[in-house]
Description:
Layout: E1 25-31, E2 36-44, H1 53-59, E3 62-68, E4 73-76, E5 80-82, E6 85-91, H2 92-96, E7 100-108, H3 110-113
Amino acid sequence: MPSTRRARAPRRSSIVSTTQFFGATTIALADGDGGTRVLTIKYANKSPSKLPDEMVTYFGKDFQVTIKLPGDVVKTNATESKGPTATWKWGLNDFLALAETELNATFKTTAAKH
């Protein structure tokens, strides 16, 4: 009996996109001014909602994304940043209720530091 294989979807550049939750996430890295690079991550939530209090208690009330970049962050919309690390924080239900989330971080490249 011949084997049947499903056609594979085009490969994306990030393992993040293979996780169902992040399937609606786009990641872009572009050249910025003065030798910087700009990372933009967009997450589209197709079903904004809130969890019942019991589930928030179970999962935790906060949601956080932390990214360590290959250079110091010079501009970001993160809640906090220090050196090469940017961190975005939300209340869990606040994050789940957003229809779209955009994370931005501009960082110095190694070449720009010299």
